[in-house]
Design goal:
about 120 residues, alpha+beta, Nuclear Transport Factor 2, Chain: A, about 35% helix, globular
Length: about 120
């Protein structure tokens, strides 16, 4: 089971990586074969069904997104901890409310994440 300090470190590093638009630092938090779903992904790539799998797919998708949105900035509202899980509630694109649920391996890598937004 992950310790409380892990969650604080993760959320700080995750937000900093996104706000720096540092794709490799973002991806460093994820397992090689992680799964991701997002309503934004579903909207911009309907054929995906809103889901992708693996770092390479995420690198292409998030890389395009970061390039298209140089103003992208996430602002933390709250972080909630579970057992090897967390929810980050934040202001995302265009200051809209977002929440992302993360499931972690025992080593602290993201196995799956599920983005939610307004």
């Amino acid at each position: 089971m992950l310790h409380d300090a892990f969650y604080q470190k993760f959320v700080g590093e995750w937000l900093a990586a996104w706000n720096a638009h540092d794709l490799e630092h973002i991806l460093a938090h994820y397992d090689e074969h992680f799964e991701f779903s997002s309503p934004v992904l579903a909207r911009v790539s309907p054929a995906s069904g809103g889901k992708l799998k693996g770092k390479e797919a995420a690198r292409m998708y998030w890389g395009r997104g970061l390039a298209a949105r140089p103003d992208l900035h996430f602002e933390l509202i709250a972080m909630l901890k579970g057992v090897n899980t967390a929810v980050i509630h934040y202001h995302g694109l265009d200051h809209k409310l977002c929440a992302e649920f993360f499931h972690f391996s025992d080593e602290g890598k993201v196995l799956a994440s599920y983005a939610h937004g307004e």
